[in-house]
Amino acid sequence: xxxxxxxxxxxxxxxxxxxxxxxxxxxxxxxxxxxxxxxxxxxxxxxxxxxxxxxxxxxxxxxxxxxxxxxxxxxxxxxxxxxxxxxxxxxxxxxxxxxxxxxxxxxxxxxxxxxxxxxxxxxxxxxxxxxxxxxxxxxxxxxxxxxxxxxxxxxxxxxxxxxxxxxxxxxxxxxxxxxxxxxxxxxxxxxxxxxxxxxxxxxxxxxxxxxxxxxxxxxxxxxxxxxxxxxxxxxxxxxxxxxxxxxxxxxxxxxxxxxxxxxxxxxxxxxxxxxxxxxxxxxxxxxxxxxxxxxxxxxxxxxxxxxxxxxxxxxxxxxxxxxxxxxxxxxxxxxxxxxxxxxxxxxxxxxxxxxxxxxxxxxxxxxxxxxxxxxxxxxxxxxxxxxxxxxx
Length: 392
What we know:
Blueprint: E1 2-6, H1 17-31, E2 35-42, E3 49-54, E4 57-63, H2 72-80, H3 82-96, E5 101-106, H4 112-122, E6 125-130, H5 136-140, H6 149-163, E7 167-170, H7 173-183, E8 189-191, H8 207-211, E9 218-225, H9 233-241, E10 248-255, H10 259-268, E11 274-277, H11 282-291, E12 294-298, H12 311-317, E13 322-326, H13 332-338, E14 342-346, H14 350-359, H15 363-380, H16 383-390
Parallel strand pairs: 1-2, 1-5, 2-4, 5-6, 6-7, 7-8, 9-10, 9-12, 10-11, 12-13, 13-14
Antiparallel strand pairs: 3-4
Helix pairs in contact: 1-16, 3-4, 9-14, 12-15
């Protein structure tokens, strides 16, 4: 088959988990004998378009405005133009290169018009990998008002995004249940778990630990978006509580709209057990994961949807136990704890989160939970099972 992937962020320059996941998916398709083309925006290319090949995957990049780490209005405008820019840039290429299957990733919600055009041009089927239900999470967190003009604007494109799909893959059973109750699209929905290649990083020395003088520390690590949806002060509160344990050190790596909030908290609380670092490349990120001890994640209490952060798969791949804080009723807690792969509590239950963090100070506990996390990756989040489902 000829398969087209569409995603708003991609390798080789991206630092996002979604980019890594989609590239691993593309490579797995290729290893199964399929030809893969990726359409992705890139605000940093000089020309209107740029085509490159990475690991035998053809990547068709098109020029766009900034859609990451920029103002909300500017981002909304630039994302709205994604489908137009992609089609106008590659229209002739698209007409000359028919594909059989379109697989597109959300976020963003703005690829619906492009997918519709491609389906008509190629008479191809389409599959939406839905990882972030927007604008619902922004409404839940009070960023957007339920019945505002901007909410209705986003909802229009959200529904267009769903209608463009022949099949929609949600990231967990609870997410599927919530989505079907809200949108009545159960005729085209199914569970499609996140995935990751099961190849850990091999290191010969602890470069990261030496650089930041953390050789004798138990490192609790968070990597990824530092934003409102995560409620990053949750981790800051935990770090403050853990300051009585001199061997515990927290590291946060990433970018987002709560970076300044964390910086202020570090200064105000005179914290010396939390290191805040900017985003790094995918290769650097994997090297860091190989050296840390505990993988952290946090989700805002007010979420109504049931997110499964992609960063957890990176932790699992490196056999790291997971320490997390989630929104109520999220089935991620059951999945992780039933498999003894980590410890999860509801956001706001600070004492329980602290107690879990203390448990993971012990190497025996970390090793056992980390090994179970690796097994969970192999059993439930295999990229081979994802490819099989997408090709059904």
